[in-house]
Amino acid sequence: MFAVYAARTDAEQPLSALELGERPAPEEREGWSTVTVRAASLNHHDLWSLRGVGLGQEKLPMILGCDAAGTDPDGNEVVVYPVIGLSGHGVGPKEPRSILTERYQGTFAEQVAVPTWNLLPKPAELSFEEAACLPTAWLTAYRMLFTNAGVKPGDSVLVQGAGGGVSTAAIVLGRAAGLRVYATSRDEAKRKRALDLGAHGAFEPGARLPQRVDAVIETVGAATWSHSVKALRPGGTLVISGATSGPNPPATELNRIFFLELKVVGSTMGTKEELAGLLNFCAVTGVRPVIDSVLPMERAREGFERLAAGDVFGKVVLTP
Q1: Which of 310, 290, 294 is nearest to 171 (CA)?
Q2: Per DSSP, which regions of 160-267 are E strands?
Q3: Could you tell me the pTM of the whole model?
Q4: Is the pLDDT reported for residue 88 higher than 80?
Q5: Per residue in 208-242, pLDDT tens?
């Protein structure tokens, strides 16, 4: 079957490790189902895999891709929950959790095999392309906002780094949930897009906000850390799920954190139940993932190049 895969890893030139071509189809396995992929979406995780982060040499070659929507062997329309080993279903209770492409072949192919437990019904209201955007970046944003930040309608939130998959999702979900949403970006065009998506204000990084916020959604890391801490009201919550600009900020702001009793919460992905909640949220509210572009898998390299260059707003989707 045709697939997009890491033939090797290269920390300095990750795209040089990307290959497109034939790979073996999934083998039958008890407790697992083979999904015919109708759409899959890119994440920065795929670029990190090409660099060798979380992907050992012994697992190569590895088909990339965490997210997918398609049809199961009975013809049901499904969405793939990409965390394997969280429940023990299909792998045994002692296997550590992993995300697709770390231990098991991913979704950038005509077919992908996952434990049957990992399949969720795709709402009829969502297209395959829309549903394929949700399981990683949008699920991460959903958990950050509604589980770990604990915000409620009427609260305020700052989303750092508008344009990335998680930050874009947080803007759209936050506005739909009745939050006052502020966003930052170095790029004027991305600030305008954030406003078009419903942000109440869009600012350059480090700018003074109209008010201190109840929560900050942080994926940028070192470059925006001090601004994130200073933007919070006393008792506010900073939720972090990534550090694309680096993990070591020049100032940790510890004095402000303890004096104002701020909460710093790490967040990774989300549960299967939260993905079901996100799917229902989108179906009921009319919220749809922001899609930057839809490309055939044969043009996957183009999508990877744009993602690596930061030249996207929303999700890049691949279709077989």
Answers
A1: 290
A2: 180-184, 201-203, 213-218, 232-240, 263-266
A3: 0.93
A4: no
A5: 999 999 999 999 999 999 999 999 999 999 999 98
Q: Count the alpha carbons within 13 Å of 243 in the hemisphere toward its beta carbon.
A: 8
| pLDDT band per the 50, 70, 90 thresholds, residue 288 | very high
The two structure tokens encoding residue 167: 């930050």
Question: What pLDDT is attached to residue 86?
Answer: 73
Contacts of 226-232 spanning 24+ positions with Cβ under 8 A: 226/250, 226/251, 226/253, 227/160, 227/184, 228/158, 228/160, 229/253, 229/256, 229/257, 229/262, 230/256, 231/158, 232/260, 232/262
Residue type, 137: A
Pair 291, 317: CB distance under 8 Å: yes
Amino acid at 50: L
pLDDT at 164 > cutoff 90: no
Residue 3 near residue 22 (C-beta atoms within 8 A): yes
Helix (H, G, I), strand (E, B) or coil at 84: strand
* 154 in Cβ contact with 294 (< 8 Å): no
Rounded distance between C-alpha atoms, residue 16 and residue 7, angstroms? 9
